[in-house]
Amino acid sequence: MDHDQFVAEVAERADVPRDQAEALTQATLWTLSERITGGEARHIAGQLPVELQTPLAAAEEEAEGFSLDEFIRRTAERAGVDRGTADIGVAAVFATLRDTIDGDDVRHMMSQLPLEFREMAAGPRLRAPGGDLP
Question: How many of the other CB atoms lie within 10 Å of CB of 123?
């Protein structure tokens, strides 16, 4: 999947404009780079389009321990969106990552995250037609 396809998938899944999908994608990847180990982040980065690799490739080796709520808060701040949009955007980026990276690598990444992340990533928390949460 190339960069444009990745961002288009996020935009469609989150029902947001393309520029907002780009901001949500970058913000989610930066926040993910803080939450998983540097080795895992760099491994995932190698499977993404070049335009999306920087946040993960720059990850510190030590992962920070923070909740999904904090993950969404940081993503919202970085993307310049409200919490509800960030919540849906993070789910859309994780769903697109699931479709992009190797299945074993998805499992390795998710094993570094608390159960609440796995639950979010397992099922869509995406907008229903009309922009409302399902």
Answer: 9
